[in-house]
Each structure stands twice: as structure tokens, then as C-alpha cells.
Amino acid sequence: MPLLAGRRAADHGATIRSMGNAAEARRSITDGAPGRRPVPEDEAAGGPLGGGAPEGGARTVGLSKVYGTGDMAVRALDNVSVVLPAGRFTAVMGPSGAGKSTLMHCVAGLDGATSGKVYVGGQELGALSDRRLTRLRRERIGFVFQAFNLLPTLTALDNITLPMTLAGTRPDREWLDTVVRVLRLGDRLTHRPSELSGGQQQRVALARALVTRPQIVFADEPTGNLDSRTGAEVLALLRGAVDDLGQTVAMVTHDPAAAARADAVVFLADGRVADVMDAPTADRVLDRMHGLGGLS
Questions:
Q1: What is the CA radius of gyration of the chain?
Q2: Does residue 120 sit in helix, strand or coil?
Q3: Which of 17, 105, 205, 223 could share a disulfide with 231, CB 3.0–4.6 Å?
Q4: Helix, strand, coil abundance in the chain, percent, nearest 5
């Protein structure tokens, strides 16, 4: 079932129109992958997509993240410049410790950069006060955690609408009903997380990420705790959010079959962009991951 159920929201029309040529968008996803044309710094700042990350997309410029100091310092990200094009589904893969989740958390504004810049749409996150960053995360970013992060004392409905409750706003009832119907949660809205299966909890987490109509949805190993059937359903919903809504989705995964649902895959190794694959297949992703040293 299409996510919009026959209706496209007007505020996403501009996003869909701004997507431009899909192949060009995928080619511009990084300036550091082997075999790809290096993007000059001034172009990276503006971007071949026109003005940097298009509305709904995100990008990083020379992003580095270091944990600790001195001999204990760990460089999780090392000068990463990457674009997550608007209206596209991008997967992020790499061996354990490659920096996948760190990249996701930095771009989503959940963790600060040591150096470099992060943009969501045209907004540089490092230029925002804590209050404005909190507002941006609440209004323009959706995040689906592997561990669900649902509040145990709240019902499924209250968990879904929590971002708007915190913001003091009311949900668009028609859109809320559409999300609930598509995610098949109508008979579970009064249940608390302990009364839901793992797949139902993940659908509640996905509904929470979608209900505010964010510019971009980040999903960190969204199928990692699910059985294969439920995981396939969640991937289909993320794919549908892109195809039917023009949503921008970025997903960390270790599963080649999950990555094959994306438009492109960014491969990280040792905190750097190692490669980018357009139109991925599970077999091609699997081969590339073996070349990088694992699938963890």
C-alpha cells in the first residue's frame, strides 16, 4: 500500500521536484570514493546538486570525530565528505569499527563533530545553539534506533506522538491515521511496549520517525533485532517512504540483502569512505564487504 494512500502532501512536492537526475544524485554521494572524480572543496561546499544538500537531504564536509585524547584518542571518522541526496535511500556499510553509527549520529545531530561540517538541508548543525539543534532534530529529523527506544510507561500511540507532545503541537490527524494504517498498528495503539512483539515495537518506532514528516529519516540497524519476515516488512516500508513520499532515508546495516533495497551504498573502512556502489545487489555488496574485511 502506498504510504500516501493516494495523496501526496504539497509540502513534499518541492522535495520531489528538487531531486533532479537520480543517477547524478547518486554519483555525487561522495567525493572520496576510489575511481570517482574528486570534488573540489568549493564544489563540495555548494555541491553539484545545487547549493549543497538539497532540501530534505544531508551532507558532510571534511567530517572527523575523535573520542578521547592523547594516547587514548580513537579517530572514529577521518575527513569524511559525503552527500545523502534528497528523495533517495542510502545504505551505509562497513566492518565493525568503521564509523557507520558514528556517521549516522553526527549527521542526525545526536553527536557533535570534532572538525568539519554537517548540513541538514541548507542548515549547518555546528552553527546552531543547543536549543535550535534540539528543535531541528525534533522537527526535521526522524531516527529509528535498533533498540527501539520506546518509553515503557507510554502507549504505542503516545510513543508515536511523543515528538509533537514535547513540542507542544498537535499531529496532523489524517497523516497520523495514514501512518498507523500502513504500519498496521491500528489495533495496538493502546498497548504498552511490553505488550508488543519486537516487530510491532519497531513499527511503532518507525511511525514515530515518520509522523512529523521529517526531511530525513535515519535508521541505525533497523532490522538487527527482527526476524527475517518482519525485517523484510520494515525494509519495504522504508523503501516505500522513499518511492511514495519522496522521503530521504539513510540506513546503517550489516545485511547485504537489506543494503540491496537502497539506491546506493556508502562503504566505510577505518573511518573513511572506501567506496560507493550505485544500484546495489546483495551479491555485489557481499563481494565488496569481503574485500573490506568482514560483515560485522
A1: 18
A2: strand
A3: 223
A4: 40, 20, 40
Average pLDDT of the chain is 81
**Cβ(103)–Cβ(268) below 8 Å:** yes
* Whether the Cβ atoms of residue 191 and residue 156 lie closer than 8 Å to each other: yes
The answer to whether the CB of 251 falls within 8 A of the CB of 145 is no
DSSP letter for 85, please: -
- Looking at residue 214, the DSSP 8-state letter turns out to be -
Going from the C-alpha of 144 to that of each of 55, 108, 205, 263, 287, the distances in angstroms are 21, 11, 6, 19, 28
Q: At what angle do helices 198-210 and 228-245 cross, to 10 degrees?
A: 10
- For the stretch 230-259, pLDDT in tens is 888 889 888 988 988 788 999 999 999 999
The single residue listed with the C-alpha cell 542526525 is: 108
SS3 10: helix
Q: Tell me the three-class secondary structure of 151-183, residue by residue.
A: CCCCCHHHHHCHHHHHHCCCCCHHHHHHHHHHC
Give tens-digit pLDDT for 118-144.
999 889 999 999 999 998 998 889 999
In the beta sheet, which residues pair with residue 15? none
Q: How far is the C-alpha of 117 from the C-alpha of 260, rounded, in Å?
A: 29
* C-alpha cell, 24: 547524478
Question: Is the pLDDT score of 56 beyond 80?
Answer: no
| E-strand stretches of 68-175 | 74-84, 89-93, 115-120, 123-124, 141-144
Task: Give the pLDDT score at 295.
Answer: 56
